[in-house]
Specification:
By secondary structure, this protein is α/β, with parallel strands linked by helices. The chain contains 24 helices and 18 strands. The radius of gyration is 26 Å and the shape is globular.
Length: 617
């Protein structure tokens, strides 16, 4: 608190509207409220949230959590904190990395019998004085914990948690706050955390992530693999495991037989769980695992992990979610010739997110796409009695960008094949208006591949996102976009993916974003259940299940182009649906002067040519 005198804004000047956003953050923390902040790309949301939050938290003796969905945003938060720490302000921030990524062993298996870093952890930690040493640093990152863990033979993940217990600021993934299977129990279980402020970055991502947390799956193929594993084990204990897995395997044909209409291969149907049987099997496995742990202590652990232990934790989570009950859940059976899947589908996680959010001193949720506010307040479970919202315009000159809605084609699923040649022609024409790098963002990988086959742009200058890209692959793509001397490229990517959100393309890395259709979620059995649920609850099923999430992806993709006051670029929206009122009503207000209809162009080539003519190099 004494060191707060050294705290000042860590950049030479504030961007336009940054001060207004910082004031909303101060107000939320002062009043113990929650605030939803929609601020466009480039405003500088990270520092606009962290700077006033640290100021208020240190003054009032509060702890600060900063959580986000992607590691890129965590890195940006860490860099901001390092800037603030260089001023002489006394605080400690801990950046948490996933447990398996933190592991120093060749094989990730967290047990003191097989891991030297877990063995005798508490006494080694006490002898080393590591926690006190690390608390003297302003920012403790995964690399710092890994280096200390290697030197003192202690688990770096556990070390980061022990430091976090004493730290002022914790940075990490949503999981550490919201995931019922991996949230930080030392902070949130059986203890009050009303002295903690929560900042949720890119908060629009919590909508789908929250549902995923409460949608566990039980696969018959996995049950049969474990049954075979137990059959091969000679110890008498495994005969009891055999009986357990046989009983669990029998559940699947019973669900099939009781379905109203027996599903064909690949089809899904609603079922009623066998509550009593599942509760009985849960108790049975818990009893078996007590004996199994003693058995493993006696005979040792097999190398490469323990499949029974892994299944036990997954089964516990499955049963925990089953026990929650409520109309937010649907129970789905999927049939395959050689497999079956029993899934608990969470249609709405708001009740569970609300329980967590309501315990914080205050909550700041921010994103470039957090409107309509009522939608996000509903689906994220923000308490209405203590939540307010604010939206901010772009800090950059509108003259530096041209947004053009091109209604010449339809990207509706039934029209995609028909309009593919015309869609590719429009993309080729837009790219030809000005030499440079472009990003083309599609609703799906299948649609991306369809349009790619029609493009006339040189194939060697196309970079295509795939479903299985690693962080190294992603880094190589970003590096290629920076290498202007090698010539321009066109990046083909999907909306909502790793190249469409949470990544910066400063300067000429991208001079245009071409968004091919609204990225509505695919219409399928589960999504229709979600639609029906929201229709019953709010009377807005299509909007809540499809339209709002889909248009969120559009605006996120569009935000990749203009990242600073000097960036110049175009944003083209291809699809006649962007002219429909329910779609263009969701365009950010700073995109247009009076009406979103002014963005519609019947001659996109002339419109873009005129824009580039005004911005000659």
């Amino acid at each position: 608190r004494d060191s707060l005198e050294a705290l000042h804004f860590p950049f030479q000047s504030e961007r336009l509207h940054q001060d207004a956003m910082m004031e909303q953050v101060r107000l939320a923390i002062r009043d113990q409220s929650c605030v939803l902040l929609s601020a466009p790309t480039g405003l500088g949301k990270t520092v606009a949230a962290l700077y006033p939050a640290i100021e208020q938290a240190l003054r009032d003796g509060l702890r600060l959590f900063f959580v986000t969905a992607k590691t890129t945003q965590q890195t940006l938060a860490v860099e901001t904190l390092q800037r603030l720490g260089q001023q002489g302000v006394q605080f400690t921030a801990v950046h948490l990395r996933a447990k398996e990524k933190s592991c120093l062993n060749e094989v990730y298996f967290c047990h003191e019998n097989v891991c030297d870093y877990a063995r005798d952890y508490a006494s080694k930690l006490e002898r080393s004085g590591l926690v006190e040493t690390l608390l003297s640093l302003p920012v403790v990152g995964p690399e710092t914990c890994a280096e200390a863990g290697t030197r003192h033979r202690v688990c770096p993940f556990e070390l980061s948690l022990d430091v976090a217990t004493e730290a002022d600021i914790v940075i990490g993934d949503y999981n550490y706050v919201f995931d019922p299977g991996s949230y930080l129990r030392r902070f949130f279980q059986d203890t009050a955390y009303d002295d903690c402020v929560l900042i949720i970055d890119e908060a629009h991502n919590l909508y789908a992530r929250g549902r995923d947390y409460y949608s566990p799956v039980l696969r018959q193929r996995r049950v049969r693999q474990l049954l075979s594993h137990c059959v091969d084990e000679p110890a008498r204990l495994f005969r009891d495991f055999e009986a357990f897995f046989r009983a669990l395997d029998d559940l699947f044909p019973r669900l099939y037989a009781e379905a109203m209409t027996p599903p064909r291969s690949g089809e899904q149907t609603l079922v009623t769980p066998h509550w009593e049987l599942l509760a009985q099997l849960r108790g049975q496995l818990e009893t078996l695992m007590v004996d199994y742990v003693m058995y493993r202590r006696r005979v040792g652990l097999a190398p490469g992990g323990d499949p029974l232990q892994e299944f036990y934790y997954a089964w516990q989570r499955f049963c925990d979610v089953l026990a929650l009950g409520g109309d937010e859940f649907a129970y789905i059976y999927t049939h395959h010739e050689d497999d079956a899947v029993f899934k608990v589908l969470c249609k709405d996680a708001a009740r569970f997110l609300h329980e967590r959010l309501n315990g914080f001193h205050s909550v700041v949720a921010m994103s470039a796409t957090l409107t309509p506010f009522t939608f996000y307040q509903d689906v994220l479970g923000f308490p209405p009695e203590r939540t307010f919202s604010a939206e901010f315009p772009s800090p950059f000159p509108a003259s530096n960008r041209r947004i053009a809605v091109v209604p010449d084609i339809s990207t509706a699923y039934r029209d995609r094949e028909r309009d593919a040649p015309r869609t590719a022609q429009i993309i080729d024409t837009i790219v030809a208006q000005r030499e440079g790098n472009y990003g083309v963002f599609f609703p799906s990988f299948a649609y991306l591949r369809l349009i790619r086959s029609w493009l006339q742009y040189p194939p060697q200058r196309l970079i295509e996102q795939s479903e299985t890209m690693s962080e190294a692959d992603r880094a190589r793509v970003l590096e290629r976009l920076q290498q202007q001397h090698l010539g321009p490229v066109v990046l083909l990517a999907v909306q909502g993916g790793i190249f469409a959100e949470g990544v910066d393309y400063p300067g000429d890395m991208l001079i245009g974003a071409i968004i091919v259709g609204p990225g509505l979620p695919r219409m399928d059995f589960e999504q229709e259940l979600i639609r029906d649920y929201y229709e019953d609850k709010y009377g807005r099923g299509f909007a809540y299940a499809y339209l709002y999430p889909g248009m969120n992806r559009v605006v996120q993709s569009a935000g990749r182009v203009i990242r600073s006051e000097t960036d110049v670029g175009i944003i083209a929206l291809l699809d006649k649906r962007f002219t429909y009122s329910n779609y263009h009503a969701l365009f950010p207000a700073h995109w247009y002067t009076q009406s979103p209809r002014e963005l519609v162009t019947r001659n996109y080539q002339q419109t873009l040519s005129r824009f580039w003519g005004q911005h000659t190099r």
